[in-house]
Task: structure prediction
Amino acid sequence: MKKLQVWIPLLFALVMIVGMLIGYHLYENTHTNGFFKTRKIGRVQEVLDLVNMKYVDPVNPDSLSDQAIQGILAHLDPHSYFIPAVDREEMNEDLQGNFEGIGVEFQIFNDTVNITYVLPNGPSDKAGLQVGDKFIKVNDSLVAGNGINSERIKKLLRGPGASTVTIGLLREGRPVTSSIVRGMIPLPSLDAAYMLDKETGYIRINKFSRTTYGEVMEALEKLQKQGFQKLVFDLRNNGGGIVDQAVDIADEFLGDDKLIVYTEGRKSPRREYRAQKPGVFEKGKLILLVDEGTASASEILAGALQDWDRATIMGRRTFGKGLVQEPFQLSDGSELRLTVARYYTPIGRSIQKPYNRGRDEYNDEVLERFHDGELIHGDTSSKHAGPVFHTKGGRVVYGGGGITPDVFVGLDTSRVSMTLTDLYKKGTLNNFVYTYYMANISKFRQFKDADAFIAGFHDDDKIWNSLVEFAAKDSVNMSSITPGDKSMLQSRMKALLARLMWRTQGYFEVSNSSDPVVRKAMEEFSNKVAMPLKQAAKK
Result:
């Protein structure tokens, strides 16, 4: 018995090891079609497991899973999408409204990163960086003359708050080294807020992030102090964002518990968003500017104000994105944003355009509008007009494909000429404007604001001749350009120069002075037309 007691532990250990080996081989060989399978798994997981275990060459399981997910989503709507864990933080920065960085804007000219703007009181401003500085090194990484791109320089410059980055610069031909402590950098959604004339305010926002409502309220307060009674609210090329921000802004224009938008889906019960507080601008005349780049939350705002006859919608038919995405965080840190419902305007319009012909045709639909002539002449064929609805005031509006404006303003076709396309695609125009600005910076600094620049800058012929010479070196022939293209380009260059001096505010102040859509809005105001425009009800 004593001898047996000595061997019993060893026998148990051997039995356990043999059992584990047998169990492992049984699992490997049978768990996908298996006799011993304890739970049912889907075919997609079965295929992934088989490829991972049996495929002839090594594979990356994570990459396979990502592609499988993308393949599944490709058969749903165009706005359900998957964000890998590595991209999640960057994807959310824009909606968050800030990021950790050094506080500069830059452009890459001739393989060199040039600073075009330094955020006042930001980390780079405190470290003494200047417009015109050229990046040579970021820490130990050379970033000049080696094919540097915007994404790589962003990754090098951004990092945790309070961390230090050492920058090697070239300033007026001499090397400079600067250590910068990274900090929180805002990503404003408000591009401009100023007075178009003594009683008309203008606000433009580029997205709906977590800071948008606060930015708009500050802008409205600023305009109130300047005595605005009418407002042009510019949503052109605003692709949307956080819906709650759009609802809060709509609340400032609507009152009396008015419905702003509601959502509903197969597994999502109806949820209503209503005006909940007295708004700061519920009575004044209001025009919203929209175009084919106006989407999602922007369309919710436009649809609510149109349904309640609160504003005139002016421009071109909006994109037509009316689907609700809910984020689901996955176990590995990645995220699935899945469509769970549709948005509906107060009178029940769905603004979502059809997507039953596939993602490619869905994404090309705006280009089709150009080829069909809709962007130039408006939708005269009625083929895009969906179900007919009537606003509270009896006006006819449509669902099923974006928000159709009350006042149409066609696309300026000079902006899509071949010569201009070459100037933009090659970066020639931006390169020239920056080069010209740096060569004449002392002259530009004499202008105290955008109004003084609009009134006092008269070097149109000089800058045009310089552009022609500069473009020729970039293989862009300007000899056949039309008078309309030339006039548009001169206005564009003036606006880009203003941007270098006063950021987006200066850009839009100068650009709007010749913008046909803004001019049309001012005409409607000056004609003293009741807002919104009256239209006979068609029932």
Summary: Residues 414-523 form one domain. The chain has 18 helices and 21 strands. The longest helix spans residues 483-512. Residues 31-36, 534-539 have pLDDT under 50 and may be disordered.
